[in-house]
Amino acid sequence: MQEDNRIKVALRLDKTKLKEIDQVVKQENLGSRNAFIDEAIEFYMGYLLGSKNKYFPSAISNVIDGALKITEDRISRLLFKNTVELAMALNVIAYNFDIDDETLKKLRQQCVKEVKSTIGRINFEEIRKFQRNVEQ
User: Fold this and answer.
1) Model-level pTM?
2) Which of 36, 56, 86, 109 could connect to 46 by a Cys-Cys bridge, CB 3.0–4.6 Å?
3) Is residue 122 within 8 Å of 115, Cβ to Cβ?
4) Do 122 and 114 form a contact (C-beta atoms < 8 A)?
5) Among residues 6, 7, 40, 8, which one has the least CA distance to residue 21?
6) Structural domain boundaries of the chain?
7) In which region does residue 29 sit, left (phi positive, over 0), alpha (psi from -120 to 50) or beta (all else)?
């Protein structure tokens, strides 16, 4: 027989709480009130102590992983749609304008510089102003 390291302690509970515990014990097939209290204490200790418990952090981790997966899927779909639209626009532009390689190279350099300096926040009005200044 294994040595039991558990100590018997007295515990006072409200009758309503005790009934609720009994319902959960039965519903979750925990076996006993003692098993319920052990689980509850372990869970609450994990809550108080952070990631040192196996229950609480895994619950949070699962929720965060699920939310990140949903967000990742949404962003991926939006990027795909955006890339399709961009490909269409580029094809229309390439079809209608004959731009030499040197001009295209300079334009790419200018665009990389602009996107870096604005952290990707560019707008049509600013580009139009820039193009009008280039024409003059």
Assistant:
1) 0.45
2) 56
3) yes
4) yes
5) 40
6) 15-53, 55-97, 99-136
7) left
